[in-house]
Amino acid sequence: MTMVSYAFNGKVAFVTGGSAGMGAATARAFAEAGAAVAIADLDGGAAERFAAELHAAGHRALAIQCDVSDEAAVQTAVARTVDAFGGLDMAFNNAGIMLPPVDSADETAEAFDRIVAVNLRGVWASMKHELVQMRKQGHGAIVNCSSLGGLIGGNGRATYHATKHGVIGQSKSVALQYAPLGVRVNAVCPGTIETPMVARMTAGGELDPETAVSSIPLGRLGLPEEVAAAVLWLCSDAASYVTGVALPVDGGYTA
């Protein structure tokens, strides 16, 4: 697909879950638009390989091994980004997990805590430390990755959907608080996107692509690059009057 071109020369972007899927597509798009990009990922080796690929293409990239459920690790990752590149202009808090469907009467506390730790606490920690820097600068744009699961319920995935609803609540609330300080905060709500997570769900029998496509008005799964395009727009001056929104990128599913 053809991406709209943005001029992010001299800007710095930070992406969690940045080595694969929507995170990698967004990190690549930021880099190709001229930004220096920090790729934070639980899989440090994958982040290193992706950063090397971006370097080879002439881009500025930094790989950081980071577990977003560990606030100290997130604080360090943001600090390393600022130290390496001199500031922080844009962030895509994308890291998230999904566990297999479960009857809510049988879900373990351990499963609940694991999903919340990454999907909700991880976004909280990421925003917190990004905001420390952006508050100091007096500008910045943050995009948090919710989901169509932040807009509707999901049979067998109550905790996942609860966290994604929570991400929207976090995003709207911080957007209100930080609008006077020059920082915009929004969320994207991807539908079923062709990512490694969706591939694993398909392989495990949790998702039937034909059934999924049949409920999408545009008649196909989304591409990671299409989510990246939405994130870049929300971070750009083209969206300078947009804050506190939860933007569906779902082929019309939630319509």
TrEMBL record:
Q: Lineage, please?
A: Bacteria, Bacillati, Actinomycetota, Actinomycetes, Micrococcales
Q: Which family does it belong to?
A: Belongs to the short-chain dehydrogenases/reductases (SDR) family.
What keywords tag this UniProt record? Oxidoreductase
Q: Name one Pfam family in it.
A: adh_short_C2
Which residues fall in a coiled-coil region?
none
Name it. Oxidoreductase
Species of origin reads: Pseudarthrobacter scleromae
